[in-house]
Write a structure and sequence with these properties.
About 35% of the residues lie in helices and about 15% in strands. It is of the alpha/beta class and about 160 residues long. The two termini are about 25 Å apart.
Length: about 160
């Protein structure tokens, strides 16, 4: 796992604690299959041009209307965009509010994570689809997603009980 952060001291400590590898740049970290942004940034830290085809982007920070972790190009690259709650995202998610205001995205094209979890929607139709999940955090959905993941893992005989 590659990790990049702005505070080198905290980044090194995180990598030691979690067995991660330091990325040389934000671009290098963004070129992974799964990209997670967890910041309080007011300006985008992830550029769509850095994403590889098929990337899954989980943007879980910057939960204010003016805050942005993703640039418009990241949203433009996405073939599927979902969030915890569209209603909540309209008020809190600058990563979606900005692109909607710029005409890059329409709220009708933003899906809710619950519909993916229960199997009503597929988040990806092709291997090269770029998928963006913008989370502002709803504890009930976190619990529901975890319960479904455990259910599917048990049905598949995967994982282990700890």
């Amino acid at each position: 796992m590659l990790v990049f952060g702005r505070n080198e001291e905290r980044l090194r400590a995180f990598c030691v604690e979690h067995g991660c590898e330091l990325a040389d740049s934000p671009r290098e970290a963004a070129e992974c299959d799964v990209v997670v942004t967890v910041t309080t940034s007011q300006e985008p830290v992830l550029r769509g041009e850095w994403l590889r085809d098929g990337a899954l982007v989980c943007a879980v920070g910057a939960s204010e209307p003016e805050a942005r972790e993703l640039d418009d190009a990241a949203i433009e690259r996405a073939t599927f965009v979902c969030c915890d709650s569209r209603e909540q995202a309209r008020g809190e998610s600058g990563d979606l509010i900005g692109p909607v205001a710029h005409g890059i995205l329409d709220w009708s094209d933003v899906h809710e994570f619950q519909d993916v979890v229960v199997g009503e929607l597929a988040g990806r139709s092709r291997d090269d689809d770029v998928v963006v999940f913008k989370s502002n955090g709803i504890a009930a959905w976190d619990i529901a997603a975890a319960a479904r993941a455990v259910e599917l893992a048990r049905a598949a005989g995967a994982g282990r009980i700890v």
